[in-house]
Amino acid sequence: MAVNKYEKIGEARKGEEIDPNEIASYLKNFLPELEGIPMIKQFRGGASNLTYQLDFENQSLILRRPPLGTKAKSAHNMAREYDVMRRLYGKYPVPKMLHLSEENSLLEGQFYVMEKLTGFIPRTNFPKELGLEARKVRELCQISVDHLVKLHQLDYEALGFGDYYRGEGYVKRQVEGWNRRFRKARTPDVPDCEFVMQWLEDKMPQDVGACLIHNDFRFDNIVYDSDDLTQVIGVLDWEMATVGDPLMDLGGSLAYWIEANDPYCLKLLRRQPTHTLGMMSRDEVVNYYLKKMGMQDVSMKYYYIFGLFRLVGIIQQIYYRYFHKQTTNPAFSTFGVAVRLLERYCTRLIKSNSESLSTHPLSLMENIDFSIQFLRSRKKG
Fold first, then answer.
1. Closest residue by Cα to residue 112 from 26, 45, 47, 43
2. Fold of the 2-118 domain
3. Which CATH class is domain 128-380?
4. Would you kindly state where each structural domain of the chain is located, as residue ranges?
5. pLDDT tens across 350-369, in order?
């Protein structure tokens, strides 16, 4: 994990605190070089796993744990995330793993600690202090896609990830799995998404190949060197990493790629600075990636819609906990509206004849309606 002066970090949210004396006593059994009792702060970003900074007298560590409340059975696997980064360390930019606790009453489940990187993580907007011109923004954008390509071109078997490969049928497993997860997590105030789920099953392509995929590759999971933004020193959040279809990974990334020309209601979902002058559009990202990977005659529409629906599933699983008062994080108050918006967006894309991913299909009235819903929900939260 990396932090800098732009990072939002503060006291732990109510109910998500960690006892500094207990965690110090525990960790010193495995990391005896630690000194003193840590000051503990919690990162404000992210809507899934909980991330903390532990400032001991002689060094700072990062601790990751699952969210509280009911969770999907296969989600928030700390051991998996730890294992992936442990295997990749030294071969791909990731932090060094220090300790994994698989079963411990201290935090009621798995957690791990890793080194703290010092770098820059792009969040919702680039800080004005950086003074990034369009040309530099474009360069950072290309560097991010280059690292996705680099990941997909790794020899996963040589790196010891052969046991992560479950054979052909990755697309099928993902579609059926996310359909099942959404149905299980659905709350009565969101649409059933049956039209979208049926289309994903009916139009399902064969796997185009198998490689190591991140499954959550976004700007805010990339750590750039603060002194040289052309260098990536870390890629974070590997809990969903596996061996699977590279285009499914790209589709998942594009689901978060909000453009400057997108409707206002979509911009309310934006979590990374992909709207900034100089950024590539979704269509440009696809063309750049496919050229780097040596792929031709590929339509990304299916993979983009899957990525959007997978995002619906992720959001709904979080919203389920908020709806049932298993978490009080006010940031989740708008997630029900987000599910309704993305379901409508996917439906419109499916019915559209366009193959472009940069031409949004929502009407003006839909944009206004969802924007109002978002703002009202945010005010209530």
1. 26
2. Phosphorylase Kinase; domain 1 (3.30.200)
3. alpha beta
4. 2-118, 128-380
5. 999 999 999 989 999 999 99
